[in-house]
Amino acid sequence: MHELSVARNIIEIVEQNVPKGELSCVREVMLKVGEFSGVVADSLKFSYEIITADTELQNSELKIEAVPFRLRCNSCGGITTNSCGLRECADCLKTDTEVLSGEELKITEIILEDKS
Amino acid sequence: MSIITVERKVLAKNDAIAMDNRDKLTGKGIFTINIVSSPGSGKTSLVERTIEKIGSRVAISVIEGDVQTDLDAKRVSAYNVPVVQIITNGGCHLEANLVKDALGSIDLAKTEMLIIENVGNLVCPAGYDLGEDLKVVVISVTEGDDKPLKYPKMFMNSKALVINKIDLLPYVNCKIDELKSNALKINPELKIFETSCTSGEGIDKWCSFVTGSIKKYPV
After folding, report:
1. Which residues share a beta bridge with A109?
2. pTM of the predicted structure, to 2 decimals
3. Could A2 and B184 be called an inter-chain contact, meaning their C-beta atoms sit closer than 8 Å?
4. B126 contacts in chain A (CB < 8 Å)
């Protein structure tokens, strides 16, 4: 259940990037979460909700864009994917491949509502 | 409505502290291993066998990570090496700041190799860099040959795999070739060792690899 620790890191980054006094205006925190980032999206959202309850961020939520696992094969040049995290090219079955995406875990944007 | 563009890795803070740890350790010529596995795969036994084998030639210090108790620190301190126990109190993995604090209790000037034994967990420790040179995942044959496929992240992020408890192979339903093949499908660069910490089989090869990785002690 390291999603709790990940959620704490997200909150810290939000606090560092949002001007003081505007935390309560945060509505959405946009994340890119790779299929093999090791993070379970639902658990992360749940953890974030629990930690931000009764704080200035209580009206904000995580919006998660799932990033699929993609490989480039150094043998045939093909770009393939699989849902198991295999480093095997789905076209030629060689394992001399590079991971293009699917391991990322990052915050991309914070969306704030205008102060009323 | 306004948008603040951030583009920042969520674990950037951990990564930065890990990099500080790495700079500090490599700056002192210390080779650092982070051992990860499920609970009960034999991490502590591997630490013990490694100290037994090379502890007289290499000054080893150990950081033990556990959710509770200092049982492992007590076990390892019987081998007359400096040991620091980190108790996470429920935390499912070690983070770089915990290791940073623990380094304050270790005489780095008298250390050539640091072994960090992570909390037993085949999921959570995978994403947390501690500042190590080598992340090694241990799996025992009693866990079955399908585990690399079921817990791929840990095998993706490790550089070496120790398959432990091979003395039990005749008694368990685990095909070791299948286990190795599954691990290499997830990470073709994995360096694989087969050991029994009970019989001592394979410990020589593992230790040769470790000492070969320390510049001062080429194989």
Report:
1. A30, B5
2. 0.93
3. no
4. 38
